[in-house]
Design a protein that fits this description.
By secondary structure, the protein is α+β, with helices and mostly antiparallel strands. It is 20% helix and 27% strand. It has one domain: Structural Genomics Hypothetical 15.5 Kd Protein In mrcA-pckA Intergenic Region, Chain A (Roll). Strands 2-1-3-4-5 form a five-stranded antiparallel beta sheet.
């Protein structure tokens, strides 16, 4: 699954277009390297997000195309 879509499905970022813009601006990293929106997310990847003054790092636990709102947090583990 593409990185921008994963960020939307996991609800780390609310909209896919915003996730795409964050990737283009270099605010999203995978494994410590700046990642493009087209990066294929795999289980075990460590995604870093810089959203304003806040920095978040999560590890991908599961990759699913669709998920219920209540279960979205089960797709990742906050580090």
């Amino acid at each position: 699954m593409r990185l921008d879509k994963y960020l939307k499905v996991s609800r780390l970022i609310k909209r896919r277009t915003v996730a795409n813009e964050a990737c283009d601006a270099g605010r999203v990293t995978v494994g410590g390297k700046v990642a493009r929106a087209s990066y294929e997310v795999k289980v075990g990847d460590v995604i870093g997000l810089t959203l304003g003054p806040r920095e978040v790092q999560v590890e991908v636990v599961s990759v699913q195309e669709t998920v219920a709102k209540n279960d979205a947090a089960m797709l990742y583990k906050v580090l």
